[in-house]
Structure formats: structure tokens, C-alpha cells
Design brief:
Layout: H1 6-38, H2 57-72, H3 88-100, E1 104-113, E2 117-124, E3 132-138, H4 149-153, E4 158-159, E5 165-166, H5 168-175, H6 180-203, E6 211-215, E7 218-222, E8 225-226, E9 229-230, H7 241-260, E10 273-276, E11 279-282, H8 298-313, H9 321-333
Antiparallel strand pairs: 1-2, 2-3, 3-7, 4-5, 6-7, 8-9, 10-11
Helix pairs in contact: 7-8, 7-9, 8-9
Length: 337
């Protein structure tokens, strides 16, 4: 018979307890495992569906505006009249901004063609309040055909390449400029000057075509005449002797109004006086001068009046150009000529 010591019993009890603990732990692990495996696996949360940027109110508003712009976009500016002209592309490029600005819609015919510029009759945009408008387009290098242009440029404000007024020796240096950039600047200022002068004169009550806009080498203004029948120059008109005196007086009055606005036409003649339905309109102020810059321009005033007197002398109108000019000069400049 095997003898058991107390230590053996203690060891067995310990082993038993360890076995129970081991089994219990395993049982617990199994139970946990079963519970885990039996518990339904929660599905991964579905990602929140992102709202398309097209659904944004701001984006939709922008798309609507863009669509409206596309629907209202103008067709290209391609007047049929220009298709047959050799310089059609040049004319088109000179007028396209007026088209984009809702000032004109088409080009109809040539009104007048000269050495420096050509005038075109354009169909006016309804927003202007006119049926037709005249577009005066200067040709490239137009200074080459201007006679004695230095005489006129020295007697009005001149500008450097930055648009600043220059005087004295600086003024002389601008005149001697020969490179293309400075020449282009001179042309630009010349055209801007004509538009600005015409604006001042129109607002001052001088009978000139109402100026509407100026872009680059082009000036847009009121059209005088009917479609296909522009107002002729006084040179091409045979007047009734009964109306000659009244027309002469009207022209002299407008010359004086010009002087009151600090402007002398400088090249006035029957070639730049329009006659339409018994009314005279003065045009072509590219060579207009300001007597306040140089009082030596008095002879230009006398010459303007002399030419008008010579034309109307054929209709029996008697007047002394020197006396008329001197009286005007005294009234508006207050000094002896």
C-alpha cells in the first residue's frame, strides 16, 4: 500500500486547483470566443454621400448667369460691306470696340475719304438714340500727309509717352522723336485731341457733330444726312443768294463760339463745313489750336475767316476778315493781335 505524505495531498490539491483554473479560463475563453463569433458583425458605416458641387446654390447661380451670357453673346462683328474692301480688316479692327460697347451694329457705306482718314456711315445701336452714326477712322502713319502739322502741335498741349504735358525744350524734343513708338504716341494724342476738342465745342454750343466715343484711331460721332445721302460739304453746294448772308453770319458766330471755348479751327474752309437742310455744321478739328498756349496763332484765325469770306463773296456777301478776327480776339483774349 502506497504511503501518501501530507505534502503529496497538498500537491494534488494544488494541481487540481490549477487544473480547475486552467479549465475555467479556457471555458471562459471559449465562452468569450463563442459570444464574439455569435455576435453579428456590425457592417462598416456607409460614407456620407457628398453633395455634388453642381448642387451648390452659388455654383448653380454662376452657371445660370454664365448660360445667360452665352445665350446673349453677340455674333462676331463681320459687316458684309467690309468684305469687299481691301482695307476691310483694318476698318473692322478699328470699329469692333464700338460694336462690343453697343454703339453700332453694322457698317453701311463710305461717307467721305481723305488723305488722313475715312468716314463710314454705321447703323447705330438702339441704345444710342440715333439711327446712324459716323465713324472717322484714321489711317496708319497719317502724320505723313498732314501739312505743317508742327505749326498746330506747337500751339496746343503736347504729351510725352506717359501722357504728361510737356513744355519748352521738352516740347521740342518730343517733336524730334523719330522712332515708331514715339510716332505712334503722337498719332494717338492727335486723335484724342480731336475728340476732346469736339466734346468741349459741342458742350459749348458750337454746331459740331455730337461726339460719342473714341477708341484708338477711331472717333464715333453723330451722322449728318440720310442713309446713302450724307450731308455734302459747302464746297459742293450751290446756295440760294437769299440764304447766303444768314449762313455766313451763322458760320462767323460759330467761329466766335469756338474762340470762346479756347479753340481756333486752324484749317477751316468750305471743305469742312457741312450743309444739310439749310444748316451748317463744322467738322474736322484735328488741327484745332488753343490761343492761350501761343498768341502767335492769330493768323490762323484770320485765315479761317478769310476763307469763309472768299466763299460767300460769290453770293454777294461783303465782309472784312481782318476786322472780324480782330474784334473776336479783343473780346476773348483782351489783347492786341
Amino acid at each position: 500500500m502506497t504511503d501518501y505524505r501530507e505534502d503529496d495531498f497538498l500537491r494534488e490539491d494544488q494541481d487540481f486547483e490549477d487544473a480547475l483554473i486552467y479549465k475555467g479560463v479556457n471555458r471562459q475563453r471559449k465562452r468569450l470566443h463563442v459570444e464574439v463569433t455569435k455576435k453579428p458583425i456590425a457592417s462598416a458605416p456607409k460614407p456620407t454621400r457628398k453633395t455634388s458641387y453642381e448642387q451648390s446654390e452659388d455654383v448653380q447661380r454662376w452657371l445660370t448667369m454664365h448660360r445667360e451670357d452665352e445665350e446673349s453673346a453677340k455674333p462676331p462683328f463681320n459687316p458684309a460691306f467690309l468684305a469687299s474692301l481691301r482695307d476691310g480688316p483694318w476698318v473692322r479692327s478699328s470699329l469692333v470696340q464700338f460694336y462690343e460697347d453697343d454703339l453700332i451694329t453694322d457698317v453701311v457705306h463710305v461717307v467721305k475719304s481723305g488723305k488722313e482718314a475715312t468716314v463710314y456711315c454705321c447703323t447705330a445701336h438702339p441704345s444710342t438714340g440715333f439711327e446712324y452714326l459716323a465713324a472717322k477712322i484714321y489711317r496708319p502713319r497719317m502724320f505723313r500727309s498732314l501739312k505743317n502739322d508742327a505749326v498746330y502741335r506747337f500751339n496746343r498741349a503736347q504729351y510725352d509717352l506717359d501722357g504728361n504735358i510737356v513744355r519748352g525744350r521738352q516740347q521740342r524734343s518730343v517733336q524730334k522723336a523719330s522712332n515708331e513708338r514715339k510716332r505712334a504716341a503722337q498719332v494717338a494724342h492727335w486723335i484724342e485731341h480731336e475728340f476732346a476738342v469736339q466734346q468741349v465745342l459741342y458742350e459749348g454750343g458750337v454746331r459740331v457733330p455730337r461726339p460719342l466715343a473714341q477708341v484708338g484711331n477711331s472717333i464715333l460721332m453723330e451722322y449728318i444726312g440720310d442713309l446713302g445721302d450724307p450731308a455734302p460739304t459747302l464746297q459742293t453746294v450751290t446756295l440760294e443768294r437769299a440764304e447766303a448772308q444768314a449762313l455766313f453770319d451763322d458760320i462767323i458766330e460759330n467761329i466766335e463760339l469756338c474762340l470762346a471755348q479756347q479753340c481756333i479751327h486752324g484749317d477751316l474752309s468750305a471743305y469742312n463745313l457741312l450743309y444739310w437742310q439749310g444748316i451748317i455744321t463744322l467738322i474736322d478739328f484735328a488741327q484745332g489750336v488753343d490761343p492761350h498756349y501761343n498768341p502767335d496763332v492769330y493768323p490762323l484765325l484770320v485765315r479761317d475767316i478769310e476763307r469763309v469770306c472768299q466763299y460767300f463773296s460769290h453770293y454777294g456777301v461783303q465782309a472784312r476778315a481782318e476786322e472780324l478776327a480782330h474784334a473776336m480776339w479783343q473780346r476773348y483774349l483782351g489783347e492786341n493781335a
